[in-house]
Amino acid sequence: MFKRVLIATAVSAMFAAPAFADVTISGSAEMNLMYQTNQVGTDSKGKVAEEIAVIVNVDGTDKLDSGDTLKWRLAQKVATPDRYDSFGQREAWIGYETKFGEVRFGNQFSNQYLELDGFASSGQSNLWADFGSQQIQYANGVSYFSPKFSGFSFAGQYDLGNGRNSARAMELTANYTGYGFNVAAGVSEAKNSGSMSSEAGTFAGKGTWGSSGNFVSGSDSNKARTYNLDAAYKVGAFDLAAGYKRNEWKENQVNLAADKVTVDQFLLRGGYTMGKNNFNLGYQRVQDAKVNGTKVDNGMNVINAQYNYTLSKNTVAFAQVRHHMLDTAGQASVMTASSQLDDFAIGSDKKNATRLMVGTWTAF
Fold first, then answer.
1. Which SUPFAM superfamilies does this UniProt record tie to the protein (predicted)?
2. pLDDT at residue 1, rounded to an integer
3. pLDDT band at residue 12, thresholds of 50, 70 and 90?
4. What are phi and psi of 180, to 5 degrees?
């Protein structure tokens, strides 16, 4: 044992440096108080709820002798009162940045998901980013991010899956920023994921962040594709946005008993900023699902409004209302998780679901 300790000490000394790599800590802290109508387990009555969420990111960089940069991230979201996750389940990756772009290896977000979630600001992401056939996270991801060329950039991601082509996920995204415009497009495909459903999830992880390995095969095979095109434009105090997303689930689906299911989505949003005040109004349409080519009357319209007031350079207070209007009572598209619709009692005789929320968001 003593000999092994001496050897470990000697090896460590060989690589010791007079300066440490740069490490930074960042994140956010959010507090929400809300009232939601037509809730699960309440005979479709209302319910008051609270949510506290703290995200901590630990980032490190080291300038290499070649001039390139080694980067890493360790991140976690701690939510109360119902969840406390192990540190690193949110993100844990190592990257290498050069003049030709950046590659990352490890547990990381889907770049398509981040684009969808960022585009659907002010209370629209529950359907635009969290509902659908896209993946949220790749536990065994390999990613490439290009440099910017006159405002244009692209990224490619691949999840190794089971190490064979029988279970894997991949995507390609592109972005353009310039002349007041921000345009993002993406296409992705996941094959034989153990967590495949109408709820966007972690690839192959059955809902467990940072995990992988639960794959299906044979008669339980599945495949999903997602296409999106989002465009935002800012002029003066106004910002406008519009988006389109197509969800496709093919073959035998977990939670979707059909050979092929497609759902189209549309989004509109407008905002106005006046000093510390920011006003937002949004509209979404989830089209009727097509199940094996036949339309099902399960579409919905969603309107939302949010007011933000800047309390400091890091903190914003907000008030939000989100109202879902179902075409058919109890039929919320192909959703299987009530959490996607503010814990609305899916399958009930109700056609509407509303959430009122106030809170603060702080960056650090």
1. Porins (SSF56935)
2. 46
3. low
4. 85, -5
Residue 26 resides in a domain: no
Whether the CA torsion 283, 203, 336, 259 is positive or negative: it is positive
- Residue 38 domain-assigned? yes
- φ, ψ of residue 345 in degrees (nearest 5): -75, 85
Residue 207: CB atoms within 10 Å: 14
Burial of 53 (0-12, 13-18, 19+ CB in 10 A): middle
Structural domain total, the chain: 1
pLDDT digit string (tens) for 149-199?
Answer: 999 999 999 999 999 889 999 999 999 999 999 999 999 999 999 888 888
Question: For residue 157, what are its two tokens?
Answer: 């991601």
User: What pTM does this model have?
Assistant: 0.91
Question: 48 pairs with which residues across the strands?
Answer: 35
Residues 49-87: tens digit of each pLDDT: 999 999 999 999 999 999 999 999 999 998 877 666 667
Could you tell me the two tokens for 251? 């073959």
* C-alpha span between 313 and 190 (Å, rounded): 40
The residues facing 74 across adjacent strands are: 58, 92
Residue whose structure tokens are 């300790």: 5
Residues spanned by the domain of 240? 31-363
What does the pLDDT read at residue 82? 65
327 within domain boundaries: yes
Question: Residue 325: which CATH number?
Answer: 2.40.160.10
Angle at 38 between CA 37 and CA 41, to 5 degrees: 120
Give the pair of three-digit tokens for residue 53. 């969420």
- Give yes or no for a contact between 128 and 267, defined as CB atoms under 8 angstroms apart: yes
H or E stretch including 245? strand 238-251
Tokens of 112: 């398509």
Do the domain assignments include residue 24? no
Q: What is the mean pLDDT of residues 201-205?
A: 88
Measured CA to CA, the distance from residue 147 to residue 155 in angstroms comes to 9
Residue 324 CB contacts under 8 Å (≥ 6 apart), including other chains: 300, 301, 302, 332, 341, 342, 344, 352, 353, 354
> Residue 100 class from Cβ within 10 Å (0-12 exposed, 13-18 middle, 19+ buried)?
exposed
